[in-house]
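Re: the pair you flagged

First of the two:
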Amino acid sequence: MAEDDGSNPNPLSGLDDSDLRANVYEGGYKTWECSIDLARYLLDHSVDAGHVVELGCGSAVPSLVLFRSALKGKGGGRRFTLTDYNADVLRCVTVPNLLLAWVGGLKEDESKEVFPESGNPLLRKEEENGDLYLTPEVIGGFQKALSSAVISLTLLSGSWSPVPILLDLIPSTPELDTFILGSETIYSPASLEAFVETITALMKRVETAKTLVAAKRVYFGVGGSVDGFRAACVERGCVANEVEFEGLGGESEGGVRRCLIEVRLF
């Protein structure tokens, strides 16, 4: 972000006094509480799906958990599709986080190949906040790691609707097990309806699929709720069940209660 070439006059346009602005900026620069809940859950549970789709990814913290596992050969051969409303979020937050996740997991001998002179900046104990420069070695090493682990990345920006257009952009085959992730994606009735329509369409085109959604039970002032989400799922032929998980935050932290919802087709 610091080395932006100036081609985009305001890459940080979303960083202001508002968490989101409808149809302009949808909150992708902020790591929301529920995404941490979802990441905690994924750390404790194995996922074997060949295709991971995170809708409204932003910083993509849940996907980073699965991405790190795939890089280590745990569930390798995965395809990741990450979507966010704002292209700048994908460019300035999502992709850098993927790269940081890779660099942070390098072994000592691997670090020497990528950082032959300076050493891995993320492993320097004397520096609390180090700079990572995108040298040809870093970019090449990242691409090599993706190739070795047979990982493919698809990044999409824009609205989920119209859903048929989005589906054309997301690679898939009927036999490709699909695991869909979403955090704080049901905050308003309009967002909720578009999200449910999208996940339903994605699940219907493969033989095996499920969606895991982390959300606050009620979004005061904007109208979204878990009850509304579950009702919308039923209307579209899905069953949405709450997942038991002790790692959830919310009331114990002095805030609105949060939960995880698993969605499958009937």
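Second of the two:
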Amino acid sequence: MSEQLPAGLERLWGLADQEESQPRLGLSLERIVRAAVELADADGLAAVSMSRVAERLGFATMSLYRHVQNKDELLTLMVNEALRPPVSIDEPATDWRAGLERWCREMHAGLRRHPWIERVPVGGMIGTPSQAIWLDRGLRTLEGTGLSEQEKADALLLLNGYVFWEARLSEDLEQASTAGEDAPAFGALLSFLADPERFPALRRAIDAGIFDADDQDDRDADFDWGLARVLDGLEPLVTRAGR
């Protein structure tokens, strides 16, 4: 099976020849990955290239290829590093709901620290040790609920999708605000265009002030509200399974 794995996953799971990862003239795989993550944090995923990472480290581009095969492998290593689960998800929770809420909040916080992760193609995130830890801890949280293993996995997939979507939306809104295209401006445009006879429901919502504020506190509150509703939807399922 190992010969079918991408090179990045072979490294992360300890299945690859590790000799090539040894430091050479002060350069190491760890330093390369850390520099790439820092570059993505500062300038976005599009800024990450083998040449830019090498420049950041003060080495020739070809020096990096002694440690990492290509950019795809580098992206896999970056995601694994940036999404390492915090130790808090190993702490006991009062119940499944509190555990899943913490699981979601910690993942959301990681995505907010490294917003470029949401731009990585899905294939670059699958199968990393960090992902396996997140999945394992989420499944542990649902132990004792009576849910089948498939239902537990489906619940985590639902929550994971919500967390990633909210993190990406928040980042998009933040970028739009920086570019002068924030929600208040969008709201003002809709307020001008939305005729009450043609769009009565939208007009009422605008007049009620749905676009009046859009700072980080509001986005955090939106995340909290949505997470609570998703967990509300899972609660009857867990209750029935527990019977």
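DSSP finds eleven helices and no strands in the chain.

-B.
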